[in-house]
Amino acid sequence: MERSITSTVRSSPRLEHELLDYDGIQKLEDELGSSFYVLDVNKLKENYRKIDEAFRSRYKNLIIGYSYKTNYLPHLCKELSRLGAYAEVVSRLEYDLALKIGEDPTRIIFNGPLKNIDDIYFALSNKSILNIDSLYEIDFVKSFAARNPEIEVPIGLRVNFDISQNGVSELQEGYKYSRFGICVDNGNLEYALSELREQENIRIIGLHGHFSTKDRSIESYKIITQNLCKLAKENILDSLEYIDIGGGIYGELPKPYDLFVPTFDDYAETICGIMNKEFKDVDKKPFLILEPGVAMVANVFLFIAKVIESKKIRNDYFVLVDGSVHNVKPTLHKNNLPMRIIRRKHDCSRGKKTFNIVGYTCMEKDYLASEIKDRLPMEDDYIIFENVGAYTIVFNPPFIKERPGIVAMDNRKVVVARKKETIRQFFNEEIYVF
Length: 434
Known about the structure:
Elements: E1 3-4, H1 15-19, H2 22-32, E2 35-40, H3 41-56, E3 62-67, H4 74-83, E4 86-89, H5 92-100, E5 108-110, H6 117-125, E6 129-132, H7 136-147, E7 153-160, E8 182-183, H8 188-197, E9 202-208, H9 218-235, E10 242-244, H10 264-278, E11 287-290, H11 294-297, E12 301-313, E13 316-321, H12 325-328, E14 339-342, E15 352-358, E16 367-375, E17 382-386, E18 405-410, E19 413-418, H13 423-426
Parallel strand pairs: 2-18, 3-4, 3-11, 4-5, 5-6, 6-7, 7-8, 7-9, 9-10, 10-11, 13-15
Antiparallel strand pairs: 1-19, 2-12, 12-13, 12-17, 14-17, 15-16, 18-19
Helix pairs in contact: 3-4, 3-10, 6-7, 9-10
């Protein structure tokens, strides 16, 4: 449950600046402890608006489904639902969360490779958008349709096709093939269509084509969109209601990154251009479904950690903070995130040093940042890590210490969106046996 702590923040025309100065952070520490996340709700709204405007201005039949797995903080999911986003989920856990926060089940897109028969029945009974990922799900769908001959059973298929360019894989880690979806090239798609059409009340209404690419290039999305449109026109044009291109697009990168990435408008120009061209002669144009995750939330979270100690080992300096690499980089990548130091004392007399920022775990590889050149942070300073909104909340293990709290800022309103975890939640007696 959200809890207001507005009274701890002084009046100011710029709430973020006030909240993140030294005194503001200290007051939040009293409530949350010496490390916590900050959700910028205004930035979240801005991201949604930019994505929506970029695509809807070019193709009006648009559905944005927020990818829950990227960060399923209830406060965030509720806000995106209010803005108009559907819930894109890949497990029954995420599906049930969407229902718990009040989402209309007809606005839930159920994807993912693992669904049991109860999941399939539940989603179809609730009239959710269901994309089956594998052939084993066909029997579950046919069984539901046979038990409910009086109702129409709409189904989408996640398809698998080659998106390589000039023989070079576009997939993350250079994998030759994606492991997801129903394969087009070996005849499995043809088999799936035939099997599903045996049941008269099943309608195949959409194709889904999410691919995790290594560079999120416009060319990849061009290939994905073109293939989905081609397959849909060849196989399900009479019943087609949507083309789902998945997610994975770039969001806005922070300034320190010297990397050119496509903008939302760049992606939309290509994807929507193909949709308009392919369906220009179709009276009822299908919906375009987009499922952004990282692009929606990566830059809307900060992680604030208190400096515990700065020490020297041989010739190197190490700054220990009340945080872990898992809090800011759960995939353990080596890149430094944008960050800033909030100092207790503004002593400019100290020269710059090269230092590493390390965490509280007992792992040697617990580096939150490496080779930083600045004035050495001191005890009771704070370090703010930016751009930590993707996967950190959901992919953050309860390892050694409890999970930190989360505070959400929305104009003049400041609320606790997740309390700091205690031993009672860490070792939940309803599931642990003592």
